[in-house]
Amino acid sequence: MAASTGTATGLAYDIEGSGPPVVFLHGLTFDRRTWQPVIARLEGALTSIAIDLPAHGQSGGRPAPLEDVTTQIHQLLESLGVTRPVVVGHSMSAALAGLYASMYPARGIVFVDQATDVLPFARMIHQVAPMLRGPAFHQVWQNIEDSLGLDRLSGPTRTLVLENHEVRQDVVLGYWSQILETEPEELQAWIDGTADRIHVPCLAVFGRPATDGERERLARLQDAQIEEWAGEGHFVQLVDPGRFANRLRTFVEHCIPKG
Asked: Taking every annotated instance into account, which residue ranges of this chain make up the domain AB hydrolase-1 (predicted)?
């Protein structure tokens, strides 16, 4: 399918299917094409909108504060006539999904292998911040990438993900600027305050057991469901995309009021 670009936002996107709208947001250094295996298995049952974040894939622009990126996504969806979507965010984009629901009307949100407890990750990033900002960046990034579980993906899916993977130090540092420049405890407090404004159903899918901190913070949401697909790794949605697509369809049905 040919890509389209939002004229007002510069964000590249694909849209297909019919039914309730679902927005797919990729993780840092990847792009919207990583969602293709999931969208294919939805077989058009939902209106799937996969978006390239700024400075990723075919989108222009530079890294921006996540609240600004969320506004760009909302402007694109408005231009498409999309209202109250379910927003699915993988990794870093779980934050965008949560921000969207806290700032704009949504039916629900899906966190994929990341949730609202970021304190341990923020502390780790602060420890390696000098290396991230310097010539040792790629050494640190390789250690992070080695933990993603890409080896769990099937050959074709792994090839798809890696073909759409571009690591740029300026882009990573730009998107992580809030983490790098904010004390971890202060950042967590800001996220907790944002989560307090989420009043829609939430599904969190982890490729590992959820931590106590993740469970505790998800329990604060009004309607949160947790899936733990242990052993499937950070790209849990792609290890078995059919399973993820089926779970997503069930969740979307849960988000739509009956009657």
From this structure: 22-246
206-223 pLDDT, tens digit per residue, is 999 999 999 999 999 999
The pTM score is: 0.96
Look at the chain and report how many structural domains it folds into. 1
Residue 32: name the closest of 170, 166, 155 by CA: 166
Parent domain of 158: 4-255
Q: What is the pLDDT of residue 6?
A: 59
Query: 91 vs 8, 38, 197, 235, 236, CA distance in Å?
Result: 26, 16, 20, 9, 10
Q: Where are the alpha helices (DSSP H) in 80-225?
A: 93-103, 119-127, 129-132, 137-146, 155-163, 169-175, 177-181, 184-195, 212-218
Here the CATH number for the domain that contains residue 164 is 3.40.50.1820
